[in-house]
Structure formats: C-alpha cells, structure tokens
Amino acid sequence: MNTLIAANWKMHGDLSWVTKPSEFRECYPLNGQKVEILLCPPAYLISAMNVACNNQLISLGAQNCHFEMQGAFTGEMSAQMMRDGGASYVIVGHSERRALFGETDKIVAQKADAVSMAGLTPIICVGEDRSQRESGEADEVVGAQLQSSIPLSADGENLVIAYEPVWAIGTGLVPTLEDIAAMHDHIRGILSNRFGVKMAEKIRILYGGSVKPSNAKEILALGDVNGALIGGASLEMDSLAAIAKCVGS
Ligand code: PGA
Description:
This protein is α/β, with parallel strands linked by helices. Helices cover 41% and strands 16% of the residues.
C-alpha cells in the first residue's frame, strides 16, 4: 500500500496558498515514490486548489463535513460538496472537532458514513487524552472509539484510521516508539476482528501528533504505521517534503 502523508492545515491559509502544490513538488519531485501526498486545506480553498493539485498528483481532502447530503443546516457543507470541489478524503472526528465542537463517536460514525456514501474516503481520528494515557486506559479508550466511530455499514474498503493521542497534538510531545507501535498493533487487531485479517492489512493507520522532519523517519519506519497526519509541520512545504522523504529512507 502507498504510505499516506496527510497535511491538516486546520484554519490556516489564504488564496495565495494555491501555489503550495507546485512549491511542494519543487522540494519533492515526482519520481514514482510509493507515497501519496494529501493536502487538507480549509474547505473554501479546495476547489481553488483542485487544478493545482491534479497537475502535481497530489490528493485533496476536507477537514470536516456534515452527515447529511443537503438541507437546512446553515453554515454546514456536505461530503458531496467536498467531492464536487475536488476532495477525495475527509478527516472526521479530529480531536479538535470532538473537544471544541462536541462531536461524539456517534456523530463521527454518521459523518464517516456520509463520506463513504459520497464516494470519498473517511480518515477517522481516534486517540486518548493525557489522563487516559497516564491511567493506563489508552488501549481501552481507543478501542471504544474505533468500535463506535467506524460506521456499522463499513466493510473496511476505502477507510483510513488516524491514531492521534490528544496530548501529542500541537505540543511537541510524542509517545515513545514502543507506545506508537503497540497502539498501532492494537488498532490493527481491532480492525482484523471486525473486517478480517486480509482486509485489515489494507487499511492505512496513520500516526498524528507533533510529527516533524526530525522524528518522522523513526515513526514512519514502524511496521504498522502506514503514514502520518501532520498539522503544524505541514504548513511549510519544505518541512512537509522533508517528512515525505523519510518514507522508506
Ligand atoms: P500537529 O497536529 O502535527 O500540529 O501536532 C496534528 C493534527 O492535529 O492532526
């Protein structure tokens, strides 16, 4: 499977950022690498970036969507609208959405279902907070999140999971390599139970939380880590390229 290097720009960027794809390719030229680059800009930039990304073989994603396809939901956008704009992925259940916008596992599952129905791939985020890690509950918490955030309708096709410990996001803190490996193994086991071993092996499990050029190589070398979801270090294209270069290096 291709390693997925996904940039979560959060609420950063302006119209001038449509040049980022070509800027990225200047730092990381296309030469048949087994790396898929995914940019997830603020939604209003998706269609503006669509052409710029096509030429550079870069995928686009949204950071959120509503779970209905249309209707009286002022201020919301549907997965279908994201697809129309040019997105092929939607991040759902990011910890900021869960913490700041009240998204529950149930809502995350509804959104993931809508994303799949629209023909896009959901990136479902899970991760424990600091107190849950410290009290030894991380496996249980992540297991429960996976159980309830992956829609009942899912068959494992076109699904990406992102393990993002909440305490590692934007903090510069990163779990030990042993802890990342153990959690990814745990997640793979849960996916195997649900979808069968063969299907579970095809599901990319990303690590996210303070990934930087300086730590990406060792994280991406772990067996069950199939890519990264990157916030802060994805805003500069040389930094994102430096992370992508760590794949298989
Ligand atoms: P960070 O964010 O890389 O800045 O820690 C990751 C994320 O929120 O997806």
